[in-house]
Amino acid sequence: LYDRDGWIWQDGEWLPWREATTHLLTHTLHYGMGCFEGVRAYEGPSGTHLFRVAEHTRRLLDSAHALDMPLAFTANDLIEAQRDCLKKNALTNAYLKPTVYFGAEGMGLRAKGLTVHAMIAAWDLGDYISPEAASIGLRALTSSWARHHVNVSLCRAKTNGHYVNSMLALNTAVKAGFDETIMLDTEGYVAEASAANIFLLRDGVLHTPEVTSCLQGITRDSVIRLAREVLKLDVQERRITRDELYTADEAFLTGTAAEILPLRELDGRHVGARAGAPPPTQPIADDSVTAQLQRLYRRVVRGETGNELQAFSGWLTPV
Ligand code: PMP
Q1: Which of helix, strand or coil describes residue 312?
Q2: What is the mean pLDDT of residues 108-120?
Q3: 218 lines ligand 1 (CB under 6 A)
Q4: What is the residue with the minimal CA distance to atom 5 of ligand 1?
Q5: For domain 131-302, which CATH number applies: 1.10.1060.10, 1.20.1070.10, 3.40.710.10, 3.20.10.10?
Q6: Residues catalogued as catalytic
Q7: Cβ density class 115-151: b for 16+ within 10 Å, e for less
Q8: Using CB atoms within 10 A as the burial measure, which of 16, 82, 117, 212 is most buried?
């Protein structure tokens, strides 16, 4: 990942990719206190656009504020830097990772005078999930690791250290032969996947866990709005139990990188079997709500806004 050409933005300067290093005593490396975003840019008929960059940048600044990491850059500075990052690296279909971290001015939890830094790296993502993979979806295992709790951590902040918990859960599932993991909160209710939110459809109504243990995903919000405003579906945010996933008509995961991925099997149960869904090895039905949302989402992120999608053109920022 590091031996390549390109430019990385750090605190307003451009560093050649190979020289974009940091000191070994960087505080965030030792204690995991920092925050980041994952943002996407897409190439569409009217050029390259960042997707919901204002919302991602706001979440980054909210995370930094909640973690008490005062940052010297405004939202506009960071949005401008993300656009420049794409231009300088000649990227179109890309993934950007703005990150806020502490410097190396001190060690230990009581370190004083730590400087707060920001960086943005971006790379080509191409077709991250092929259309076939997006249609086949995932087989998942419910994790024995509980997801974060509001009195243990800041669940709304996208904190670097949170991902230890995600990786413990994901790696256990992958080693056992699954594609993903579904994590429950400390009380046993469904929270989210390792790095994606979760939805289920039952009798034409969409349900997704309320934002307590799960991240307040921006794709989650996009899907809720598309479902309500375009597909005219009822969407409920509430506590969900794992048996509701087993018996759902459809289920899917949402995230910036993954977009919308069907959840086809959970703990050996074929999700949607009783509603007549194709077996987990076959593509999902074209007329399923999951497939309809996938098609709408792909059009919106690429700026292929027809009449019914006009309301969402504000989600795109031209590069
Ligand atoms: N939950 C977690 C833990 C994540 O890391 C992500 C990815 N950022 C999501 C949910 C989905 O959030 P978003 O749609 O904003 O990418």
Answers
A1: helix
A2: 97
A3: yes
A4: 195
A5: 3.20.10.10
A6: 158
A7: ebbbbbbbeebeeebeeeebbbbbbbbbbebbbbeee
A8: 82
Report the atom number in ligand 1 closest to the C-alpha of 258. 16
* Residue-range domain boundaries for the chain: 7-124, 131-302
* Closest residue by CA, ligand 1 atom 4: 195
- Fold held by 7-124: D-amino Acid Aminotransferase; Chain A, domain 1 (3.30.470)
- Answer yes or no: are the C-beta atoms of 73 and 5 closer than 8 Å: no
Find the 134 Cα to ligand 1 centroid distance in Å.
17
Query: Does ligand 1 come within 6 angstroms of the Cβ of 57?
Result: no
Give the span between the Cα atoms of 211 and 4, in whole angstroms: 39
Residue 312 gets the label, from left (phi > 0), alpha (psi -120 to 50) or beta, of alpha
Q: What is the tens place of the pLDDT at every residue in 78-109?
A: 999 999 999 999 999 999 999 999 999 999 99
Residue 181 falls in which region: left (phi positive, over 0), alpha (psi -120 to 50) or beta = beta
Q: Which of 304, 279, 311 is nearest to 46 (CA)?
A: 304
For ligand 1, pick from 215, 224, 253 the residue to mutate: most ligand atoms within 8 Å of CB: 215
Query: Which atom of ligand 1 is found nearest the CA of 256?
Result: 16
> Which of 55, 219, 222 is the best mutation target for the ligand 1 pocket, counting ligand atoms within 8 Å of the beta carbon and taking the most?
219
134: tokens are 């997006």
Average pLDDT over residues 286-290: 98
Q: Is the CB of 40 under 6 A from ligand 1?
A: no
